[in-house]
Amino acid sequence: MSKTNPHFIIVAGEASGDMHAAHLVRAIKERCPQASFSGLGGPQMAAEGVDLLTDLTRWAVVGFVEVLKHYQKFKKIFYLLLAHVKDTRPDAVILVDYPGFNLRLAPEIKKLGIRVIYYISPQVWAWKEKRVETIRDHTDRLLVLFPFEKGFYARHHIDVTLVGHPLVDIVKTQEEPRDYLRDHGIPEGKTVIGLLPGSRLNEINNLLPAMLEAGHEIRAKTLSPVQFLLFKAPTIPLDLLEQHIRKQGLPVRILETNIYDGIQSCALCLVASGTATLETAILNTPMVIIYKTTFLTWLLAKLFIKIPCIGLVNIVAGKKIVPECVQQEANARTIAQEAMKILSDSEKRIHMKKELSRVKELLGDPGASGRAAEEVLRVVQDTAAR
Protein backbone atom coordinates (compact mmCIF):
# COMPACT_ATOMS: atom_id res chain seq x y z
CA MET A 1 0.00 0.00 0.00
CA SER A 2 1.26 3.46 -0.83
CA LYS A 3 2.37 5.56 2.11
CA THR A 4 0.14 8.33 0.77
CA ASN A 5 -2.80 6.04 1.53
CA PRO A 6 -1.73 4.41 4.80
CA HIS A 7 -3.74 1.68 6.42
CA PHE A 8 -3.67 1.27 10.19
CA ILE A 9 -4.93 -1.55 12.35
CA ILE A 10 -6.03 -0.19 15.72
CA VAL A 11 -6.92 -2.22 18.83
CA ALA A 12 -8.87 -1.00 21.87
CA GLY A 13 -10.75 -3.19 24.29
CA GLU A 14 -12.73 -1.03 26.72
CA ALA A 15 -15.13 1.91 26.61
CA SER A 16 -12.45 4.48 27.49
CA GLY A 17 -10.01 3.01 24.97
CA ASP A 18 -12.74 3.02 22.32
CA MET A 19 -13.33 6.71 23.01
CA HIS A 20 -9.64 7.68 22.87
CA ALA A 21 -9.01 5.55 19.79
CA ALA A 22 -11.97 7.16 18.01
CA HIS A 23 -10.59 10.64 18.66
CA LEU A 24 -7.16 9.53 17.45
CA VAL A 25 -8.64 8.13 14.23
CA ARG A 26 -10.48 11.39 13.64
CA ALA A 27 -7.30 13.41 14.24
CA ILE A 28 -5.29 11.23 11.83
CA LYS A 29 -7.97 11.57 9.12
CA GLU A 30 -7.94 15.34 9.55
CA ARG A 31 -4.23 15.31 8.72
CA CYS A 32 -4.32 12.44 6.23
CA PRO A 33 -7.80 12.03 4.69
CA GLN A 34 -6.63 9.02 2.66
CA ALA A 35 -5.86 6.98 5.78
CA SER A 36 -7.99 3.90 6.41
CA PHE A 37 -8.50 1.82 9.55
CA SER A 38 -9.54 -1.63 10.65
CA GLY A 39 -9.18 -3.60 13.88
CA LEU A 40 -10.87 -4.23 17.20
CA GLY A 41 -12.82 -1.71 19.25
CA GLY A 42 -16.28 -0.45 19.97
CA PRO A 43 -19.11 1.73 18.67
CA GLN A 44 -17.21 5.03 18.82
CA MET A 45 -14.43 3.66 16.63
CA ALA A 46 -17.01 2.25 14.22
CA ALA A 47 -18.65 5.67 14.03
CA GLU A 48 -15.30 7.12 12.90
CA GLY A 49 -15.10 4.63 10.03
CA VAL A 50 -12.97 1.87 11.56
CA ASP A 51 -13.79 -1.49 9.95
CA LEU A 52 -14.20 -3.65 13.08
CA LEU A 53 -13.57 -7.38 13.08
CA THR A 54 -15.59 -7.54 16.30
CA ASP A 55 -16.76 -5.27 19.09
CA LEU A 56 -14.14 -6.05 21.73
CA THR A 57 -15.70 -3.65 24.24
CA ARG A 58 -18.58 -6.11 24.69
CA TRP A 59 -16.15 -8.40 26.51
CA ALA A 60 -14.50 -5.77 28.71
CA VAL A 61 -13.70 -7.24 32.12
CA VAL A 62 -11.16 -6.50 34.80
CA GLY A 63 -9.33 -8.96 37.04
CA PHE A 64 -7.50 -12.26 36.73
CA VAL A 65 -10.48 -14.46 37.51
CA GLU A 66 -12.83 -12.53 35.24
CA VAL A 67 -10.45 -12.80 32.26
CA LEU A 68 -10.07 -16.56 32.75
CA LYS A 69 -13.83 -17.00 32.41
CA HIS A 70 -13.66 -15.58 28.88
CA TYR A 71 -10.25 -16.98 27.94
CA GLN A 72 -11.43 -18.99 24.92
CA LYS A 73 -13.30 -15.98 23.52
CA PHE A 74 -10.23 -13.72 23.89
CA LYS A 75 -7.99 -16.39 22.35
CA LYS A 76 -10.25 -16.66 19.31
CA ILE A 77 -10.32 -12.87 18.86
CA PHE A 78 -6.53 -12.69 19.31
CA TYR A 79 -5.85 -15.08 16.45
CA LEU A 80 -8.55 -13.50 14.30
CA LEU A 81 -6.77 -10.16 14.64
CA LEU A 82 -3.34 -11.69 14.02
CA ALA A 83 -4.57 -13.33 10.82
CA HIS A 84 -5.98 -9.96 9.72
CA VAL A 85 -2.58 -8.34 10.31
CA LYS A 86 -0.90 -10.99 8.16
CA ASP A 87 -3.44 -10.58 5.38
CA THR A 88 -3.50 -6.78 5.23
CA ARG A 89 0.12 -5.91 6.10
CA PRO A 90 -0.81 -2.50 7.56
CA ASP A 91 1.61 0.42 7.70
CA ALA A 92 1.42 0.24 11.50
CA VAL A 93 -0.61 -1.33 14.28
CA ILE A 94 -1.79 1.07 16.98
CA LEU A 95 -2.38 -0.54 20.37
CA VAL A 96 -4.54 1.47 22.79
CA ASP A 97 -4.05 0.58 26.48
CA TYR A 98 -5.68 -2.86 27.16
CA PRO A 99 -2.39 -4.48 28.31
CA GLY A 100 -3.58 -8.04 28.96
CA PHE A 101 -4.38 -8.39 25.25
CA ASN A 102 -2.12 -5.85 23.59
CA LEU A 103 1.15 -6.71 25.33
CA ARG A 104 0.73 -10.29 24.08
CA LEU A 105 -0.11 -9.02 20.62
CA ALA A 106 2.87 -6.65 20.22
CA PRO A 107 5.63 -9.34 20.00
CA GLU A 108 3.62 -11.32 17.42
CA ILE A 109 3.19 -8.25 15.25
CA LYS A 110 6.88 -7.35 15.47
CA LYS A 111 7.76 -10.85 14.26
CA LEU A 112 5.95 -9.93 11.05
CA GLY A 113 8.13 -6.85 10.59
CA ILE A 114 5.26 -4.42 11.12
CA ARG A 115 5.53 -1.19 13.09
CA VAL A 116 3.88 -1.13 16.52
CA ILE A 117 2.73 2.13 18.12
CA TYR A 118 1.49 1.97 21.71
CA TYR A 119 -0.90 4.80 22.59
CA ILE A 120 -1.83 5.19 26.26
CA SER A 121 0.75 3.32 28.27
CA PRO A 122 -0.24 0.24 30.25
CA GLN A 123 0.02 0.93 33.98
CA VAL A 124 3.32 -0.87 34.34
CA TRP A 125 4.35 1.79 36.84
CA ALA A 126 1.61 0.48 39.14
CA TRP A 127 2.22 -3.25 38.90
CA LYS A 128 4.11 -5.92 36.91
CA GLU A 129 6.99 -3.59 36.10
CA LYS A 130 8.73 -6.35 34.13
CA ARG A 131 6.26 -5.66 31.33
CA VAL A 132 8.45 -2.63 30.56
CA GLU A 133 10.76 -5.04 28.76
CA THR A 134 7.96 -6.06 26.38
CA ILE A 135 7.25 -2.41 25.60
CA ARG A 136 10.94 -1.65 25.04
CA ASP A 137 11.58 -4.68 22.83
CA HIS A 138 8.37 -4.82 20.79
CA THR A 139 7.13 -1.26 20.18
CA ASP A 140 8.45 1.40 17.81
CA ARG A 141 6.79 4.41 19.42
CA LEU A 142 5.25 4.89 22.87
CA LEU A 143 2.85 7.79 23.39
CA VAL A 144 2.01 8.59 27.03
CA LEU A 145 -0.54 10.83 28.70
CA PHE A 146 0.96 11.76 32.08
CA PRO A 147 4.16 13.68 32.92
CA PHE A 148 5.23 11.12 35.55
CA GLU A 149 5.10 8.37 32.89
CA LYS A 150 7.79 10.11 30.85
CA GLY A 151 10.09 10.09 33.88
CA PHE A 152 9.27 6.47 34.66
CA TYR A 153 10.17 5.27 31.17
CA ALA A 154 13.28 7.44 31.07
CA ARG A 155 14.54 5.51 34.10
CA HIS A 156 14.09 2.37 32.02
CA HIS A 157 15.95 3.90 29.07
CA ILE A 158 12.87 4.09 26.87
CA ASP A 159 12.33 7.20 24.77
CA VAL A 160 8.67 8.20 24.90
CA THR A 161 6.57 11.08 23.62
CA LEU A 162 4.35 12.90 26.09
CA VAL A 163 1.22 14.00 24.21
CA GLY A 164 -0.97 14.98 27.19
CA HIS A 165 -4.42 13.66 28.02
CA PRO A 166 -7.17 13.75 25.35
CA LEU A 167 -9.82 14.17 28.04
CA VAL A 168 -8.80 17.83 28.28
CA ASP A 169 -10.41 18.27 24.83
CA ILE A 170 -13.17 15.71 25.23
CA VAL A 171 -14.66 16.79 28.56
CA LYS A 172 -16.72 19.85 27.66
CA THR A 173 -20.01 21.18 29.01
CA GLN A 174 -22.80 23.03 27.24
CA GLU A 175 -24.88 24.38 30.12
CA GLU A 176 -24.38 26.06 33.45
CA PRO A 177 -25.35 23.78 36.37
CA ARG A 178 -28.37 25.95 37.26
CA ASP A 179 -29.72 25.71 33.70
CA TYR A 180 -29.05 21.96 33.51
CA LEU A 181 -30.90 21.26 36.74
CA ARG A 182 -33.80 23.47 35.69
CA ASP A 183 -34.05 21.73 32.32
CA HIS A 184 -34.23 18.38 34.10
CA GLY A 185 -36.89 19.54 36.54
CA ILE A 186 -34.64 19.44 39.60
CA PRO A 187 -35.60 22.24 42.02
CA GLU A 188 -33.02 24.52 43.59
CA GLY A 189 -32.09 23.49 47.08
CA LYS A 190 -31.82 19.78 46.31
CA THR A 191 -28.49 18.07 46.95
CA VAL A 192 -27.63 16.38 43.66
CA ILE A 193 -25.45 13.27 43.87
CA GLY A 194 -24.13 11.49 40.80
CA LEU A 195 -23.50 7.76 40.49
CA LEU A 196 -20.91 6.54 37.97
CA PRO A 197 -20.75 2.77 38.55
CA GLY A 198 -18.53 1.98 35.56
CA SER A 199 -18.57 0.82 31.95
CA ARG A 200 -18.08 -2.93 32.47
CA LEU A 201 -20.78 -5.39 33.45
CA ASN A 202 -18.81 -6.77 36.39
CA GLU A 203 -18.26 -3.23 37.70
CA ILE A 204 -22.00 -2.62 37.71
CA ASN A 205 -22.69 -5.84 39.60
CA ASN A 206 -19.85 -5.28 42.07
CA LEU A 207 -20.27 -1.56 42.74
CA LEU A 208 -23.79 -0.35 42.02
CA PRO A 209 -25.53 -2.23 44.88
CA ALA A 210 -23.16 -0.65 47.42
CA MET A 211 -23.61 2.78 45.84
CA LEU A 212 -27.39 2.48 46.04
CA GLU A 213 -27.30 1.22 49.63
CA ALA A 214 -25.02 4.13 50.52
CA GLY A 215 -27.57 6.39 48.85
CA HIS A 216 -30.18 5.39 51.43
CA GLU A 217 -27.80 6.32 54.27
CA ILE A 218 -26.81 9.62 52.64
CA ARG A 219 -30.44 10.48 52.09
CA ALA A 220 -31.23 9.84 55.76
CA LYS A 221 -28.32 12.00 56.98
CA THR A 222 -28.65 14.95 54.59
CA LEU A 223 -30.78 17.84 55.79
CA SER A 224 -31.87 18.96 52.32
CA PRO A 225 -33.78 16.75 49.83
CA VAL A 226 -31.45 14.56 47.71
CA GLN A 227 -31.67 13.82 43.99
CA PHE A 228 -29.61 10.87 42.71
CA LEU A 229 -28.56 10.84 39.06
CA LEU A 230 -27.05 7.69 37.54
CA PHE A 231 -24.90 8.35 34.47
CA LYS A 232 -25.13 5.39 32.12
CA ALA A 233 -22.12 4.23 30.08
CA PRO A 234 -23.01 3.26 26.47
CA THR A 235 -21.63 -0.26 27.04
CA ILE A 236 -24.13 -1.01 29.85
CA PRO A 237 -27.68 -2.31 29.18
CA LEU A 238 -30.37 -0.04 30.58
CA ASP A 239 -32.37 -2.94 31.98
CA LEU A 240 -29.42 -4.07 34.13
CA LEU A 241 -29.30 -0.67 35.83
CA GLU A 242 -33.06 -0.61 36.28
CA GLN A 243 -32.96 -4.07 37.82
CA HIS A 244 -30.45 -2.98 40.48
CA ILE A 245 -32.40 0.20 41.21
CA ARG A 246 -35.69 -1.66 41.65
CA LYS A 247 -34.03 -4.12 44.01
CA GLN A 248 -32.60 -1.35 46.22
CA GLY A 249 -35.69 0.87 46.08
CA LEU A 250 -33.74 4.15 45.90
CA PRO A 251 -35.29 6.91 43.73
CA VAL A 252 -32.71 7.38 40.96
CA ARG A 253 -32.89 8.99 37.54
CA ILE A 254 -30.84 7.36 34.79
CA LEU A 255 -29.29 9.75 32.28
CA GLU A 256 -27.65 8.79 29.00
CA THR A 257 -26.99 12.16 27.35
CA ASN A 258 -25.17 15.38 28.30
CA ILE A 259 -23.30 13.36 30.92
CA TYR A 260 -20.62 15.98 31.50
CA ASP A 261 -23.21 18.69 32.15
CA GLY A 262 -24.79 16.34 34.68
CA ILE A 263 -21.55 15.56 36.51
CA GLN A 264 -20.68 19.26 36.70
CA SER A 265 -24.10 19.93 38.26
CA CYS A 266 -23.59 17.45 41.12
CA ALA A 267 -22.51 18.39 44.62
CA LEU A 268 -20.74 15.03 44.82
CA CYS A 269 -20.21 11.91 42.72
CA LEU A 270 -19.64 8.28 43.69
CA VAL A 271 -17.28 7.06 40.98
CA ALA A 272 -15.92 3.68 39.92
CA SER A 273 -12.14 3.75 39.80
CA GLY A 274 -10.94 4.43 36.26
CA THR A 275 -11.15 7.07 33.55
CA ALA A 276 -14.35 8.49 35.05
CA THR A 277 -12.37 9.81 38.02
CA LEU A 278 -10.36 12.03 35.67
CA GLU A 279 -13.49 13.17 33.83
CA THR A 280 -15.05 14.12 37.18
CA ALA A 281 -11.84 15.89 38.21
CA ILE A 282 -11.76 17.95 35.01
CA LEU A 283 -15.34 19.03 35.78
CA ASN A 284 -14.17 20.04 39.28
CA THR A 285 -16.78 17.92 41.05
CA PRO A 286 -15.89 16.40 44.46
CA MET A 287 -16.01 12.61 44.53
CA VAL A 288 -15.56 9.35 46.39
CA ILE A 289 -13.74 6.64 44.44
CA ILE A 290 -15.04 3.08 44.76
CA TYR A 291 -13.44 -0.18 43.66
CA LYS A 292 -14.27 -3.81 44.32
CA THR A 293 -13.47 -7.06 42.54
CA THR A 294 -13.46 -10.76 43.38
CA PHE A 295 -11.53 -11.75 46.49
CA LEU A 296 -9.02 -13.87 44.55
CA THR A 297 -8.36 -11.10 42.02
CA TRP A 298 -7.83 -8.61 44.83
CA LEU A 299 -5.53 -11.00 46.71
CA LEU A 300 -3.38 -11.50 43.61
CA ALA A 301 -3.38 -7.78 42.79
CA LYS A 302 -2.10 -6.91 46.27
CA LEU A 303 0.99 -9.00 45.57
CA PHE A 304 1.88 -6.86 42.56
CA ILE A 305 0.46 -3.37 43.08
CA LYS A 306 3.16 -1.05 44.42
CA ILE A 307 1.47 2.33 44.57
CA PRO A 308 -0.48 3.63 47.60
CA CYS A 309 -3.56 4.81 45.65
CA ILE A 310 -5.55 3.17 42.88
CA GLY A 311 -7.63 6.15 41.69
CA LEU A 312 -6.14 7.87 38.63
CA VAL A 313 -6.99 11.29 40.05
CA ASN A 314 -4.91 10.52 43.16
CA ILE A 315 -2.09 8.97 41.12
CA VAL A 316 -1.82 12.07 38.93
CA ALA A 317 -1.97 14.34 41.99
CA GLY A 318 0.83 12.35 43.62
CA LYS A 319 -1.16 12.12 46.85
CA LYS A 320 -4.60 11.15 48.09
CA ILE A 321 -6.85 14.15 47.43
CA VAL A 322 -10.02 12.07 47.01
CA PRO A 323 -11.15 9.29 49.39
CA GLU A 324 -10.99 5.73 48.11
CA CYS A 325 -13.33 2.97 49.29
CA VAL A 326 -11.55 -0.16 48.13
CA GLN A 327 -12.57 -3.82 48.39
CA GLN A 328 -13.85 -4.46 51.94
CA GLU A 329 -14.30 -0.71 52.45
CA ALA A 330 -16.50 -0.54 49.35
CA ASN A 331 -19.56 -0.98 51.51
CA ALA A 332 -22.60 1.22 52.07
CA ARG A 333 -21.60 2.48 55.52
CA THR A 334 -18.04 3.49 54.60
CA ILE A 335 -19.08 5.06 51.30
CA ALA A 336 -21.82 7.07 53.03
CA GLN A 337 -19.42 8.20 55.77
CA GLU A 338 -16.88 9.47 53.24
CA ALA A 339 -19.60 11.18 51.23
CA MET A 340 -21.02 12.93 54.30
CA LYS A 341 -17.57 14.20 55.31
CA ILE A 342 -17.49 16.08 52.01
CA LEU A 343 -21.12 17.17 51.89
CA SER A 344 -21.11 18.50 55.46
CA ASP A 345 -17.80 20.39 55.31
CA SER A 346 -17.67 23.38 52.95
CA GLU A 347 -13.95 23.95 53.59
CA LYS A 348 -13.21 20.34 52.67
CA ARG A 349 -15.14 20.76 49.41
CA ILE A 350 -13.31 23.98 48.56
CA HIS A 351 -9.92 22.37 49.24
CA MET A 352 -10.79 19.32 47.14
CA LYS A 353 -11.90 21.51 44.25
CA LYS A 354 -8.54 23.35 44.36
CA GLU A 355 -6.69 20.05 44.24
CA LEU A 356 -8.86 18.84 41.36
CA SER A 357 -8.06 22.02 39.43
CA ARG A 358 -4.37 21.23 39.88
CA VAL A 359 -4.93 17.71 38.50
CA LYS A 360 -6.55 19.19 35.40
CA GLU A 361 -3.47 21.37 34.87
CA LEU A 362 -1.23 18.29 35.14
CA LEU A 363 -3.14 16.61 32.32
CA GLY A 364 -1.54 19.02 29.86
CA ASP A 365 -2.65 21.47 27.20
CA PRO A 366 -5.48 20.89 24.72
CA GLY A 367 -4.67 19.07 21.49
CA ALA A 368 -3.46 15.68 22.79
CA SER A 369 -5.20 13.62 20.10
CA GLY A 370 -3.71 15.87 17.41
CA ARG A 371 -0.21 15.51 18.83
CA ALA A 372 -0.65 11.73 18.98
CA ALA A 373 -1.89 11.69 15.37
CA GLU A 374 1.20 13.58 14.21
CA GLU A 375 3.45 11.04 15.94
CA VAL A 376 1.60 8.15 14.30
CA LEU A 377 1.99 9.68 10.85
CA ARG A 378 5.64 10.45 11.56
CA VAL A 379 6.26 6.73 12.13
CA VAL A 380 4.80 5.97 8.69
CA GLN A 381 6.85 8.74 7.07
CA ASP A 382 10.05 7.54 8.76
CA THR A 383 9.37 4.00 7.51
CA ALA A 384 8.76 5.21 3.95
CA ALA A 385 11.99 7.23 3.98
CA ARG A 386 14.12 4.15 4.71
Keywords:
seven-stranded parallel β-sheet, 13 strands, alpha/beta, Rossmann fold, six-stranded parallel β-sheet, 2 domains, single chain, 386 residues
Task: Tell me what you see in this structure.
- With 386 residues, the protein is of the alpha/beta class.
- It folds into two domains: 7-166 and 367-385, 3-Layer(aba) Sandwich (Rossmann fold), CATH 3.40.50; 177-362, Glycogen Phosphorylase B (Rossmann fold, 3-Layer(aba) Sandwich), CATH 3.40.50.2000.
- It has 18 helices and 13 strands.
- It has a seven-stranded parallel sheet, sandwiched between helices.
- Strand 2, helix 2 (43-47) and strand 3 (51-55) form a beta-alpha-beta unit.
- Helix 1 (15-31) packs across helix 18 (368-385), helix 4 (71-88) runs parallel beside helix 5 and helix 10 (201-221) packs parallel to helix 11.
- It is elongated, with a radius of gyration of 21 Å.
- It starts with 6 loop residues before the first strand and ends with a helix.
Outline of this structure?
The protein is α/β, with parallel strands linked by helices and about 375 residues long.
Give the secondary structure arrangement, pairings included:
Elements: E1 7-12, H1 15-31, E2 36-41, H2 43-47, E3 51-55, H3 64-69, H4 71-88, E4 92-96, H5 99-111, E5 116-119, H6 131-138, E6 141-144, H7 147-155, E7 161-162, H8 167-170, H9 177-183, E8 191-196, H10 201-221, E9 226-231, H11 238-248, E10 252-255, H12 259-264, E11 268-272, H13 275-282, E12 287-291, H14 295-304, H15 312-317, E13 324-326, H16 332-343, H17 346-362, H18 368-385
Parallel strand pairs: 1-2, 1-4, 2-3, 4-5, 5-6, 6-7, 8-9, 8-11, 9-10, 11-12, 12-13
Helix pairs in contact: 1-18, 4-5, 5-6, 10-11, 10-16
